[in-house]
Amino acid sequence: MQIKLAGPLQSDSIVDGEGIRTVIWTQGCSHNCKGCHNPETHDFNKGISVDVEDIKKQIMETQNQDGVTLSGGDPLYQIDASLEIAKFCQEQDLNVWCYTGFTFEQLMDMSYRNQKIKDFLNNLDVLVDGKFEENKRSLNLHFKGSENQRVLDVKKSLEKGTPVEIERYKIRKKYQSYSNFDNVCKGIYI
Fold first, then answer.
1. The domain spanning residue 60 has which CATH number?
2. Nearest alpha-carbon partner for 131 in 157, 153, 104, 111
3. 126-129 vs 150-153, strand pairing mode
4. Under a CB-based contact definition with an 8 Å cutoff, are residues 98 and 16 in contact?
5. Domain that holds residue 125
6. In whole angstroms, what is the distance from residue 171 CA to residue 174 CA?
């Protein structure tokens, strides 16, 4: 299976979710938010096609990562590949974030017609939802660009059937404890 990317995986992000993250920049988005910080990812005809198996291999080769973030573009426009990647990351005990211009409510409505969207949501830990709105932009927000966007705990949101925002982000999984701190620091150069 192929996925269209805007560029290579970024394996050292600290701004696209909590912790040190690998970011997958998907190509293609029809939201066309004014002021988007990635307008080059909008055109569905651009980008590079990459085999999902190659992405999985790159994720496995990346050391000292807390999780993977699917961004773009909008990963929901490539639901088959995005779902496969999210499932794989969960199997590897990696925290999975997704940025989308769709709202949680829209995705829930879409999931009644498309099981893959429901499956995708079930394989996410955090969803940053909603279109970027330039007039609501703030540099004081954590992990989102405008005040209308929400950082959602996906598991709790699905359980309650309504969006559950999280204020404090908690990385679960392998780099949580200080016993791994030395290993994490080995990959950091100042």
1. 3.20.20.70
2. 104
3. antiparallel
4. no
5. 2-186
6. 9
